[in-house]
Amino acid sequence: YAPHKYASTQPFLALFFAVYLLIPILFARRRPVGRRDLIDGCLVFGMPLVAFSLQAGLLQGQRMALAFCALGLGALYAGLSWWLRRRKDFDVLAQSHALLAVGFATLAVPLALSAQATACVFALEGAALCWLGLRQQRLLPQLAGAGLQLAAAIAFTIGLTAARFSPGEHIAVPIANASFMGALLIAIAGFASAWAYRQVRNDNIAGLYYGWGLAWWVGNGLNEIVGFLGHRDEPDALLAFAALTGWLAAEVHRRRPASALALTGLAALASAVPLALWQSGVHEQPFAGNGVWAWLVYAALGIRSLQCLRDGEHRLASPAQFTWWLVWPLVASLLLGWLPGQFAGMGDGWQAALIVLPWLVVAALALYRWRWLSMPLGDAFDGWRGRLLAVLFAVLGLWWLVSLFDDGAATPLPWLPVLNPMELAQLAVLVLALRWQLPAGGRLSSSRIVLLSGLAFAWITSVVLHAVHHWGGIAWDGGLLSSSLAQTSLTVVWSVLGVIGWVLGSRRGQRMLWLAGAVLMGVVLAKLVLVDREHLGNLLGIGSFIAYGLLCTVVGYLAPAPPRSADANPDRDIDAKETVA
User: Which of 196, 285, 308, 448 could form an SS bridge with 254, CB 3.0 to 4.6 Å?
Assistant: First the structure.
């Protein structure tokens, strides 16, 4: 073939196409009614592939002409499908022509952009052959359809690689370019094949096709974002793209529930966690630049995705909402933790308190306003309340332990014990933890009492050391504990706590509390002998011994003896007296 032979070759190709277009229709008309659904897939789907490939060879480099040719074929097949639907027992042939109409009409878009995208017609024809093979229960068309889709992917990849290494090749328009549209068609063909196999309950093959289509969809989006956006905008665009992907999967799941679709929606929601960390690494906080628009898209599409998963009644709906209520406090923490750095003179205590504030809010809502967090799933999410609280308090507990080693400066405000941002947040964590562990009867078990008492003791010790740092002017480093002021302060405060426990335990007949106070006083005594005696040469060291002696004298007056075992359970004593009576 040479270009000057176009005038004689084009009519021959058109005649060739018309003859083999009519053969399947005439063949079906001559068959008895009821047996017209047996059609030749090679002629119906293979002939347009061959003819269109030859047409592309005739129109070398004429992209728009080939696009209009594809659009014309789509209109022709749409008309034939409409005409066959009006005839009796031509359903399969009519549907086949409808698929070809959609395929050629869709193909016109990338062809208008680049003639190299003609390879994607293989993927569309492959999806059509898969559908036909399933409809006729024949294995050969199904295998041919899979092979065509694989061939389309290989041809597209080779063509794209060659185009990228071409010296004058440059894609200037995002989305509206041949590479994006071509990969999109391959993804759509995979999804269409998955839908066809899902219709006949063949979930295994449907899952493979869905994974194939999803891989092309995600890879296509990543390629477009990385190729056209700068490094600072990439995480924002990826967040919006992930939300869009999850929403589309959830919408399809609502109509045709499938585990793969629900898992896609869950993964899309969970992907916000690494993307939020990436945003903070790129521009310090998630909402900078275009991040605010990306998170608005994520919020809107995420809520709709949860509603779709709820309507689909899938077991992954609850994990998706569980993930949802972990993403937002993380994002809010990244934003609030960034704020103090924007104001000169803000102490570290403000940052520590603001970081944990969103987690405190969500934990408080989970404890006191659970219905606010259970929407949109409602009662179906109630079984995940304990798991959500466990994760929330794991995060709060980790922050609480780390914050004990922060100096907690409250500047520009003066530092006051407890009444400063960081220690108020620490106290709030302890209060919420107590409320979480408090059973319905209102009585804590012994193990929980010991655990919460130990945490409270550690917090009070931290408050004392922070007071020594801020009021005593001692540096917040390893030398703080070795200072006489810190040791004397700890001795006095621990002694007061021991006395309080000792006295209250004696007065209330609570032996465990009395023993805790006694043990703490013993610890203080050991501390005096082993540690504080090194400071007997200064006034603070002497004061610690005097304070301990005075407190022990008070204890001897208020609680001279430990409570009897019978006093530890006054109810049992009353029952015994009633029995004797």
Answer: 308
